[in-house]
Amino acid sequence: MIAVIGLGPAGLDRLSPATVDRLLDERATIVVRTLDHPAAAELAARRSVLTCDDLYATFDDFDDVYNAIVDRVFEQAKPVIYAVPGSASVGERAVQLIRKREDVEVLPGESFLDLVFSRVGIDPLADGLRVLDARNLPFPLILDGPVVIGQVDHALVAGDLKVRLLDQLAPETSVWVLSDLGGGEEHVSRIELSNLDQIEAGLRTTIAIKPEPVGWPGLVRVVTRLRAECPWDREQTHQSLVRYMVEEAYEVIEAISRLPADPTQPTDPADHLDLEDELGDVLLQVLLHAEIASESAGFTIDDVVEQQRLKLIRRHPHVFGDVDASSPADVEDLWADRKAIENPMDSLMDGVPAMPPLARADKVQRRAAKAGFDWPDIEPVYEKIQEEISELREAPAESQTAELGDLLFSVVNLARHLGIDSDLALSGAVNKFMNRFRLVESAGPMEGLSLTELDERWEAAKTVD
Asked: 54 — phi, psi (to 5°)?
Protein backbone atom coordinates (compact mmCIF):
# COMPACT_ATOMS: atom_id res chain seq x y z
CA MET A 1 0.00 0.00 0.00
CA ILE A 2 1.20 3.52 -0.81
CA ALA A 3 -0.03 6.62 0.98
CA VAL A 4 0.78 10.22 0.19
CA ILE A 5 0.79 12.72 3.04
CA GLY A 6 1.05 16.47 2.86
CA LEU A 7 3.30 17.87 5.59
CA GLY A 8 1.70 21.31 5.56
CA PRO A 9 3.53 24.62 5.30
CA ALA A 10 5.59 24.44 8.50
CA GLY A 11 6.39 22.03 11.37
CA LEU A 12 4.82 18.80 12.60
CA ASP A 13 2.88 20.77 15.20
CA ARG A 14 0.49 21.91 12.43
CA LEU A 15 -0.43 18.30 11.58
CA SER A 16 -3.13 16.31 13.34
CA PRO A 17 -1.97 13.88 16.05
CA ALA A 18 -3.26 10.96 13.96
CA THR A 19 -1.17 12.05 10.97
CA VAL A 20 1.95 12.47 13.12
CA ASP A 21 1.44 9.01 14.65
CA ARG A 22 1.16 7.50 11.20
CA LEU A 23 4.36 9.22 10.05
CA LEU A 24 6.22 7.93 13.12
CA ASP A 25 5.02 4.33 12.68
CA GLU A 26 8.21 2.42 11.91
CA ARG A 27 6.34 -0.27 10.02
CA ALA A 28 6.06 2.08 7.05
CA THR A 29 8.93 3.27 4.88
CA ILE A 30 8.93 7.05 4.65
CA VAL A 31 10.11 8.76 1.46
CA VAL A 32 10.26 12.54 1.73
CA ARG A 33 10.57 14.70 -1.36
CA THR A 34 13.02 17.00 0.41
CA LEU A 35 14.49 17.52 3.87
CA ASP A 36 14.56 21.25 3.24
CA HIS A 37 11.21 21.72 4.98
CA PRO A 38 10.50 22.13 8.73
CA ALA A 39 8.19 19.12 9.15
CA ALA A 40 10.41 16.85 7.03
CA ALA A 41 13.49 17.84 9.02
CA GLU A 42 11.68 17.18 12.32
CA LEU A 43 10.50 13.82 11.04
CA ALA A 44 14.03 12.83 9.98
CA ALA A 45 15.27 13.69 13.48
CA ARG A 46 12.77 11.28 15.04
CA ARG A 47 12.93 8.32 12.66
CA SER A 48 14.67 7.04 9.54
CA VAL A 49 13.51 8.45 6.23
CA LEU A 50 14.58 8.30 2.60
CA THR A 51 15.05 11.64 0.88
CA CYS A 52 14.89 12.58 -2.78
CA ASP A 53 17.17 15.60 -2.49
CA ASP A 54 19.95 13.72 -4.29
CA LEU A 55 17.74 13.36 -7.37
CA TYR A 56 17.54 17.13 -7.79
CA ALA A 57 21.35 17.19 -7.99
CA THR A 58 21.48 14.21 -10.35
CA PHE A 59 19.10 15.44 -13.07
CA ASP A 60 18.96 18.75 -14.93
CA ASP A 61 15.36 18.39 -16.07
CA PHE A 62 12.49 18.51 -13.57
CA ASP A 63 10.52 15.88 -15.50
CA ASP A 64 13.44 13.49 -15.01
CA VAL A 65 13.51 14.34 -11.29
CA TYR A 66 9.80 13.63 -10.85
CA ASN A 67 10.00 10.32 -12.72
CA ALA A 68 12.97 9.28 -10.59
CA ILE A 69 11.04 10.17 -7.41
CA VAL A 70 8.15 7.96 -8.54
CA ASP A 71 10.55 5.09 -9.25
CA ARG A 72 12.09 5.48 -5.79
CA VAL A 73 8.69 5.34 -4.11
CA PHE A 74 7.66 2.19 -5.97
CA GLU A 75 11.01 0.51 -5.29
CA GLN A 76 10.37 0.43 -1.53
CA ALA A 77 8.81 -2.42 0.37
CA LYS A 78 5.22 -1.61 1.23
CA PRO A 79 3.67 0.00 3.16
CA VAL A 80 5.22 3.22 1.86
CA ILE A 81 4.42 6.82 2.73
CA TYR A 82 5.50 9.54 0.35
CA ALA A 83 5.59 12.81 2.33
CA VAL A 84 5.64 16.16 0.57
CA PRO A 85 5.79 19.80 1.68
CA GLY A 86 2.49 21.64 1.90
CA SER A 87 -0.54 19.94 0.41
CA ALA A 88 -0.15 16.76 -1.60
CA SER A 89 -2.79 18.13 -3.96
CA VAL A 90 -1.08 21.42 -4.82
CA GLY A 91 1.93 21.70 -7.11
CA GLU A 92 3.17 18.14 -6.58
CA ARG A 93 3.89 16.68 -10.02
CA ALA A 94 5.30 13.42 -8.63
CA VAL A 95 2.06 12.79 -6.74
CA GLN A 96 0.12 13.07 -10.00
CA LEU A 97 2.46 10.55 -11.63
CA ILE A 98 2.14 8.14 -8.69
CA ARG A 99 -1.66 8.28 -8.89
CA LYS A 100 -1.52 7.42 -12.58
CA ARG A 101 0.36 4.22 -11.81
CA GLU A 102 -1.61 3.03 -8.81
CA ASP A 103 -4.58 3.90 -6.63
CA VAL A 104 -3.13 5.46 -3.51
CA GLU A 105 -4.42 6.98 -0.31
CA VAL A 106 -3.91 10.75 -0.22
CA LEU A 107 -4.00 12.87 2.93
CA PRO A 108 -3.63 16.31 1.30
CA GLY A 109 -2.54 18.30 4.33
CA GLU A 110 -2.70 22.04 4.91
CA SER A 111 -1.78 24.09 1.84
CA PHE A 112 0.27 27.27 1.89
CA LEU A 113 -2.64 28.72 -0.06
CA ASP A 114 -4.88 28.66 3.02
CA LEU A 115 -2.36 30.84 4.82
CA VAL A 116 -1.94 33.14 1.82
CA PHE A 117 -5.69 33.72 1.72
CA SER A 118 -5.77 34.77 5.37
CA ARG A 119 -2.62 36.92 5.22
CA VAL A 120 -3.56 38.78 2.03
CA GLY A 121 -7.33 38.80 2.44
CA ILE A 122 -8.47 36.79 -0.58
CA ASP A 123 -11.72 34.91 -1.00
CA PRO A 124 -10.68 32.48 -3.76
CA LEU A 125 -14.25 31.77 -4.85
CA ALA A 126 -15.73 35.28 -4.75
CA ASP A 127 -12.61 36.97 -6.10
CA GLY A 128 -11.89 34.50 -8.91
CA LEU A 129 -8.42 33.51 -7.74
CA ARG A 130 -5.70 32.28 -10.09
CA VAL A 131 -2.82 30.15 -8.78
CA LEU A 132 0.30 30.02 -10.95
CA ASP A 133 3.76 28.48 -10.95
CA ALA A 134 6.51 31.10 -11.25
CA ARG A 135 8.66 28.63 -13.18
CA ASN A 136 5.94 27.84 -15.70
CA LEU A 137 3.84 30.94 -16.32
CA PRO A 138 1.13 30.55 -18.96
CA PHE A 139 0.88 32.57 -22.16
CA PRO A 140 -1.16 34.62 -22.47
CA LEU A 141 -0.88 35.68 -18.84
CA ILE A 142 -4.42 36.59 -17.75
CA LEU A 143 -4.52 39.14 -14.93
CA ASP A 144 -8.13 39.93 -14.10
CA GLY A 145 -8.16 39.54 -10.32
CA PRO A 146 -6.14 38.11 -7.42
CA VAL A 147 -3.19 35.97 -8.45
CA VAL A 148 -1.02 33.82 -6.19
CA ILE A 149 2.29 32.75 -7.70
CA GLY A 150 4.24 30.01 -5.96
CA GLN A 151 7.72 28.53 -6.37
CA VAL A 152 9.46 31.91 -6.45
CA ASP A 153 12.48 30.00 -5.21
CA HIS A 154 15.40 31.83 -6.81
CA ALA A 155 16.46 35.39 -7.55
CA LEU A 156 16.47 34.66 -11.29
CA VAL A 157 12.90 33.36 -11.09
CA ALA A 158 11.85 36.53 -9.25
CA GLY A 159 13.56 38.64 -11.91
CA ASP A 160 11.88 36.82 -14.79
CA LEU A 161 8.54 37.09 -13.00
CA LYS A 162 8.99 40.84 -12.61
CA VAL A 163 9.61 41.23 -16.34
CA ARG A 164 6.49 39.23 -17.25
CA LEU A 165 4.27 41.16 -14.86
CA LEU A 166 5.62 44.52 -16.02
CA ASP A 167 4.30 43.71 -19.49
CA GLN A 168 0.84 44.49 -18.10
CA LEU A 169 1.18 46.05 -14.66
CA ALA A 170 2.55 49.41 -13.52
CA PRO A 171 5.93 49.42 -11.71
CA GLU A 172 4.24 50.75 -8.56
CA THR A 173 1.77 47.84 -8.38
CA SER A 174 1.59 46.47 -4.84
CA VAL A 175 2.99 42.94 -4.38
CA TRP A 176 2.72 40.77 -1.28
CA VAL A 177 5.84 38.69 -0.59
CA LEU A 178 5.18 35.75 1.74
CA SER A 179 7.86 33.39 3.04
CA ASP A 180 7.86 30.38 5.38
CA LEU A 181 4.16 30.75 6.17
CA GLY A 182 3.00 29.07 9.37
CA GLY A 183 6.51 28.68 10.77
CA GLY A 184 8.59 30.55 13.28
CA GLU A 185 10.35 32.50 10.53
CA GLU A 186 7.19 33.56 8.70
CA HIS A 187 7.62 36.85 6.89
CA VAL A 188 4.98 38.88 5.04
CA SER A 189 5.73 42.20 3.37
CA ARG A 190 4.39 44.47 0.64
CA ILE A 191 6.66 45.96 -1.99
CA GLU A 192 6.33 47.64 -5.37
CA LEU A 193 6.53 45.40 -8.42
CA SER A 194 9.61 47.30 -9.60
CA ASN A 195 11.51 45.85 -6.60
CA LEU A 196 10.44 42.23 -7.02
CA ASP A 197 13.86 41.17 -8.29
CA GLN A 198 15.40 42.39 -5.00
CA ILE A 199 13.57 39.98 -2.67
CA GLU A 200 15.23 37.10 -0.83
CA ALA A 201 13.66 34.26 -2.76
CA GLY A 202 13.52 30.84 -1.15
CA LEU A 203 11.93 27.40 -1.41
CA ARG A 204 8.79 28.59 0.43
CA THR A 205 8.48 32.06 -1.10
CA THR A 206 5.17 33.07 -2.69
CA ILE A 207 3.94 36.35 -4.08
CA ALA A 208 0.38 37.62 -4.39
CA ILE A 209 -1.11 40.49 -6.37
CA LYS A 210 -4.64 41.90 -6.56
CA PRO A 211 -4.69 43.93 -9.78
CA GLU A 212 -7.64 45.46 -11.54
CA PRO A 213 -8.31 43.61 -14.82
CA VAL A 214 -5.60 44.40 -17.38
CA GLY A 215 -4.58 42.98 -20.74
CA TRP A 216 -7.24 41.09 -22.69
CA PRO A 217 -9.96 40.89 -19.98
CA GLY A 218 -9.25 44.50 -19.03
CA LEU A 219 -9.74 45.66 -22.63
CA VAL A 220 -13.00 43.73 -22.96
CA ARG A 221 -14.33 45.40 -19.82
CA VAL A 222 -13.27 48.84 -21.04
CA VAL A 223 -15.17 48.36 -24.31
CA THR A 224 -18.26 47.18 -22.43
CA ARG A 225 -18.13 50.29 -20.26
CA LEU A 226 -17.65 52.56 -23.24
CA ARG A 227 -20.78 51.17 -24.86
CA ALA A 228 -22.67 51.88 -21.66
CA GLU A 229 -21.29 55.30 -20.75
CA CYS A 230 -19.72 57.04 -23.79
CA PRO A 231 -22.22 58.90 -26.01
CA TRP A 232 -20.17 58.34 -29.18
CA ASP A 233 -19.56 54.63 -28.60
CA ARG A 234 -23.14 54.07 -27.52
CA GLU A 235 -24.61 55.35 -30.79
CA GLN A 236 -22.41 53.23 -33.09
CA THR A 237 -23.83 50.38 -35.16
CA HIS A 238 -22.26 47.61 -37.24
CA GLN A 239 -22.87 49.78 -40.29
CA SER A 240 -21.46 53.02 -38.87
CA LEU A 241 -18.24 51.25 -37.85
CA VAL A 242 -17.49 49.83 -41.32
CA ARG A 243 -15.45 52.87 -42.40
CA TYR A 244 -13.32 52.63 -39.25
CA MET A 245 -12.61 48.94 -39.78
CA VAL A 246 -11.43 49.69 -43.33
CA GLU A 247 -9.34 52.69 -42.21
CA GLU A 248 -7.70 50.75 -39.39
CA ALA A 249 -6.92 47.82 -41.69
CA TYR A 250 -5.22 50.17 -44.13
CA GLU A 251 -3.23 51.73 -41.30
CA VAL A 252 -2.02 48.25 -40.36
CA ILE A 253 -0.93 47.73 -43.98
CA GLU A 254 0.84 51.08 -43.88
CA ALA A 255 2.69 50.09 -40.69
CA ILE A 256 3.67 46.72 -42.19
CA SER A 257 5.03 48.41 -45.31
CA ARG A 258 7.64 50.13 -43.15
CA LEU A 259 9.02 46.83 -41.90
CA PRO A 260 11.90 45.19 -43.79
CA ALA A 261 10.72 42.51 -46.22
CA ASP A 262 13.65 40.35 -45.13
CA PRO A 263 12.94 39.20 -41.55
CA THR A 264 16.66 38.76 -40.91
CA GLN A 265 17.22 42.50 -41.33
CA PRO A 266 17.06 44.74 -38.24
CA THR A 267 13.75 46.48 -37.57
CA ASP A 268 13.41 49.97 -36.18
CA PRO A 269 11.77 49.52 -32.72
CA ALA A 270 9.56 52.53 -33.50
CA ASP A 271 8.12 50.66 -36.49
CA HIS A 272 7.28 47.68 -34.31
CA LEU A 273 5.57 49.96 -31.78
CA ASP A 274 3.61 51.56 -34.62
CA LEU A 275 2.41 48.17 -35.86
CA GLU A 276 1.51 47.15 -32.31
CA ASP A 277 -0.60 50.28 -31.95
CA GLU A 278 -2.38 49.80 -35.28
CA LEU A 279 -3.15 46.13 -34.55
CA GLY A 280 -4.70 47.28 -31.28
CA ASP A 281 -6.96 49.65 -33.22
CA VAL A 282 -8.16 46.76 -35.40
CA LEU A 283 -8.74 44.64 -32.30
CA LEU A 284 -10.88 47.45 -30.88
CA GLN A 285 -13.13 47.27 -33.93
CA VAL A 286 -13.58 43.53 -33.43
CA LEU A 287 -14.49 44.07 -29.79
CA LEU A 288 -16.95 46.84 -30.62
CA HIS A 289 -18.78 44.69 -33.17
CA ALA A 290 -18.91 41.79 -30.71
CA GLU A 291 -20.22 44.06 -27.94
CA ILE A 292 -22.93 45.47 -30.23
CA ALA A 293 -23.95 41.94 -31.23
CA SER A 294 -24.09 40.79 -27.61
CA GLU A 295 -26.60 43.51 -26.79
CA SER A 296 -29.13 41.86 -29.11
CA ALA A 297 -28.22 38.30 -28.03
CA GLY A 298 -26.39 37.73 -31.31
CA PHE A 299 -22.96 36.62 -30.14
CA THR A 300 -20.22 37.64 -27.71
CA ILE A 301 -16.47 38.06 -28.02
CA ASP A 302 -16.15 34.65 -26.33
CA ASP A 303 -18.16 33.17 -29.22
CA VAL A 304 -15.92 34.90 -31.77
CA VAL A 305 -12.74 33.62 -30.16
CA GLU A 306 -14.01 30.07 -29.63
CA GLN A 307 -15.41 29.72 -33.15
CA GLN A 308 -12.11 30.90 -34.58
CA ARG A 309 -10.23 28.40 -32.41
CA LEU A 310 -12.43 25.56 -33.60
CA LYS A 311 -12.12 26.66 -37.23
CA LEU A 312 -8.32 26.69 -37.04
CA ILE A 313 -8.32 23.17 -35.61
CA ARG A 314 -10.71 21.90 -38.29
CA ARG A 315 -8.67 23.43 -41.09
CA HIS A 316 -5.29 22.25 -39.81
CA PRO A 317 -5.79 18.46 -39.67
CA HIS A 318 -2.06 18.07 -40.38
CA VAL A 319 -1.39 19.66 -36.98
CA PHE A 320 -4.36 18.52 -34.90
CA GLY A 321 -5.09 15.28 -36.74
CA ASP A 322 -3.32 12.58 -38.73
CA VAL A 323 -3.33 14.16 -42.20
CA ASP A 324 0.00 14.73 -43.96
CA ALA A 325 0.97 18.14 -45.34
CA SER A 326 4.65 18.58 -46.16
CA SER A 327 4.59 21.97 -47.88
CA PRO A 328 2.77 25.33 -47.69
CA ALA A 329 0.99 24.40 -50.93
CA ASP A 330 -0.33 21.21 -49.30
CA VAL A 331 -1.60 23.29 -46.38
CA GLU A 332 -3.38 25.70 -48.73
CA ASP A 333 -5.04 22.75 -50.48
CA LEU A 334 -6.19 21.31 -47.16
CA TRP A 335 -7.59 24.66 -46.10
CA ALA A 336 -9.47 25.06 -49.38
CA ASP A 337 -10.84 21.51 -49.17
CA ARG A 338 -12.11 21.96 -45.62
CA LYS A 339 -13.56 25.36 -46.44
CA ALA A 340 -15.40 23.91 -49.45
CA ILE A 341 -16.95 21.24 -47.21
CA GLU A 342 -18.06 23.84 -44.66
CA ASN A 343 -19.24 26.37 -47.26
CA PRO A 344 -20.29 24.64 -50.51
CA MET A 345 -20.22 26.88 -53.62
CA ASP A 346 -21.69 26.57 -57.09
CA SER A 347 -18.75 28.50 -58.54
CA LEU A 348 -15.23 29.30 -57.46
CA MET A 349 -16.20 32.93 -57.93
CA ASP A 350 -18.93 32.67 -55.27
CA GLY A 351 -18.29 34.38 -51.98
CA VAL A 352 -15.52 36.70 -53.15
CA PRO A 353 -15.90 39.63 -50.74
CA ALA A 354 -15.96 43.33 -51.60
CA MET A 355 -12.25 43.78 -50.98
CA PRO A 356 -9.96 46.55 -52.19
CA PRO A 357 -9.47 46.00 -55.94
CA LEU A 358 -5.87 44.79 -55.89
CA ALA A 359 -6.56 42.27 -53.13
CA ARG A 360 -9.78 41.16 -54.82
CA ALA A 361 -7.99 40.60 -58.12
CA ASP A 362 -5.39 38.50 -56.33
CA LYS A 363 -8.06 36.40 -54.60
CA VAL A 364 -9.97 35.80 -57.83
CA GLN A 365 -6.78 34.75 -59.62
CA ARG A 366 -5.82 32.36 -56.84
CA ARG A 367 -9.23 30.70 -56.97
CA ALA A 368 -9.00 30.30 -60.73
CA ALA A 369 -5.50 28.87 -60.38
CA LYS A 370 -6.90 26.16 -58.08
CA ALA A 371 -8.89 24.90 -61.09
CA GLY A 372 -5.78 24.92 -63.28
CA PHE A 373 -6.69 28.22 -64.98
CA ASP A 374 -3.18 29.67 -64.76
CA TRP A 375 0.09 29.81 -66.63
CA PRO A 376 2.60 27.18 -65.53
CA ASP A 377 5.51 29.64 -65.54
CA ILE A 378 6.05 33.38 -65.40
CA GLU A 379 7.17 34.21 -68.96
CA PRO A 380 3.63 34.24 -70.45
CA VAL A 381 2.63 36.61 -67.63
CA TYR A 382 5.21 39.16 -68.81
CA GLU A 383 4.02 38.70 -72.36
CA LYS A 384 0.43 39.27 -71.31
CA ILE A 385 1.40 42.58 -69.68
CA GLN A 386 3.08 43.71 -72.90
CA GLU A 387 -0.03 42.70 -74.82
CA GLU A 388 -2.25 44.72 -72.47
CA ILE A 389 0.04 47.77 -72.79
CA SER A 390 -0.22 47.59 -76.58
CA GLU A 391 -4.00 47.30 -76.42
CA LEU A 392 -4.18 50.29 -74.10
CA ARG A 393 -2.02 52.38 -76.46
CA GLU A 394 -4.34 51.59 -79.39
CA ALA A 395 -7.64 51.80 -77.51
CA PRO A 396 -10.12 54.59 -78.27
CA ALA A 397 -10.99 56.89 -75.38
CA GLU A 398 -14.20 55.04 -74.52
CA SER A 399 -12.27 51.75 -74.08
CA GLN A 400 -9.25 53.03 -72.19
CA THR A 401 -10.75 52.49 -68.72
CA ALA A 402 -11.46 48.85 -69.47
CA GLU A 403 -8.05 48.31 -71.07
CA LEU A 404 -6.29 49.93 -68.13
CA GLY A 405 -8.22 47.62 -65.83
CA ASP A 406 -7.01 44.63 -67.83
CA LEU A 407 -3.44 45.89 -67.53
CA LEU A 408 -3.72 46.32 -63.76
CA PHE A 409 -5.28 42.86 -63.45
CA SER A 410 -2.29 41.41 -65.35
CA VAL A 411 0.18 43.26 -63.12
CA VAL A 412 -1.50 41.77 -60.05
CA ASN A 413 -1.14 38.37 -61.70
CA LEU A 414 2.59 39.04 -62.14
CA ALA A 415 2.88 39.94 -58.46
CA ARG A 416 1.14 36.69 -57.56
CA HIS A 417 3.54 34.64 -59.65
CA LEU A 418 6.47 36.48 -58.04
CA GLY A 419 5.09 35.81 -54.57
CA ILE A 420 4.67 39.54 -53.91
CA ASP A 421 1.68 41.18 -52.24
CA SER A 422 0.59 43.78 -54.78
CA ASP A 423 -1.06 45.96 -52.12
CA LEU A 424 2.11 46.07 -50.05
CA ALA A 425 4.24 46.64 -53.14
CA LEU A 426 2.13 49.60 -54.27
CA SER A 427 1.91 50.99 -50.75
CA GLY A 428 5.69 50.83 -50.47
CA ALA A 429 6.09 52.60 -53.82
CA VAL A 430 3.72 55.37 -52.73
CA ASN A 431 5.59 55.84 -49.46
CA LYS A 432 8.90 55.92 -51.32
CA PHE A 433 7.58 58.58 -53.68
CA MET A 434 6.29 60.67 -50.78
CA ASN A 435 9.61 60.48 -48.93
CA ARG A 436 11.58 61.45 -52.04
CA PHE A 437 9.19 64.29 -52.83
CA ARG A 438 9.67 65.68 -49.33
CA LEU A 439 13.43 65.68 -49.99
CA VAL A 440 12.86 67.53 -53.27
CA GLU A 441 10.79 70.12 -51.37
CA SER A 442 13.40 70.45 -48.62
CA ALA A 443 16.09 71.36 -51.18
CA GLY A 444 14.46 74.77 -51.69
CA PRO A 445 11.52 76.46 -53.47
CA MET A 446 10.26 74.49 -56.47
CA GLU A 447 8.44 77.29 -58.22
CA GLY A 448 10.09 78.35 -61.47
CA LEU A 449 12.35 75.32 -61.74
CA SER A 450 12.56 73.56 -65.07
CA LEU A 451 11.71 69.89 -65.43
CA THR A 452 15.42 69.19 -65.85
CA GLU A 453 16.21 70.94 -62.54
CA LEU A 454 13.41 69.10 -60.78
CA ASP A 455 14.69 65.83 -62.18
CA GLU A 456 18.15 66.58 -60.82
CA ARG A 457 16.67 67.08 -57.36
CA TRP A 458 14.73 63.85 -57.77
CA GLU A 459 17.83 61.88 -58.70
CA ALA A 460 19.61 63.35 -55.68
CA ALA A 461 16.70 62.30 -53.45
CA LYS A 462 16.93 58.74 -54.79
CA THR A 463 20.49 58.44 -53.52
CA VAL A 464 19.23 58.97 -49.96
CA ASP A 465 17.06 55.81 -49.97
From this structure: -65, -25
